[in-house]
Amino acid sequence: MADAVDTYLEIEQIRQLKYRYFRALDCHDWALFATCLAEDVTTALDSGKYSFSGREGFVAGLRELMDRPTLLSKHHGHHPEIELVAPDRARGTWYLEDHVIDVENSWMVHGTALYQDEYVKRDGAWQIIATGYRRVFETVTAPIPQQFKLISSWFGVPG
C-alpha cells in the first residue's frame, strides 16, 4: 500500500508542477516559470515551431513572444496521464486548451493540443526537462470583432 501512496504523491507533485507552469505563463511570472524547468530543458512547442534549448533560452523566448500587457492568454491542462518510469523520471501527456488575445495587433487564437512532457526529480523537486505539443486544432479571429470588449485583465485594461 505504501508504494501506491508514494506513487500517487509523486504524480500529484508533477500535476502541481504543470499547473504552476500554466499559471506562471499566463501571469507573465517569469521567475516562477523558470522554477518549473530543469536547467537543461528542451522544447518543441506547436510541433517545433517554437523550439528552445535550456531554461534561460526558453524563458527568454517566451518573454519575447508574450511579455506585454496587451497579450493575454489562458492555458488549461486537462486529463493528465502521468507515468513514473524511474524514481527520478516521469513522462506525461496533457490535453491543452488555450486562448490568446492580442489586443495591440487585433487577433485572437483558440485551440487545443496534446502536450508530451518528460520530468526529472532533482534535489527533491520535480522539474520539466522536455516539453512540447502538437495542435489538435487552432482557430484565429482577426481582426478582433468590434463588439468584443475587454473590460478587465490581470495587467489592466489596455487603452
TrEMBL record:
Domain SnoaL-like: 9-128
Coiled-coil stretches: none
Gene3D superfamilies (UniProt xref): 3.10.450.50
Entry superkingdom: Bacteria
InterPro entries from the UniProt entry: NTF2-like_dom_sf, SnoaL-like
Name of this protein: Nuclear transport factor 2 family protein
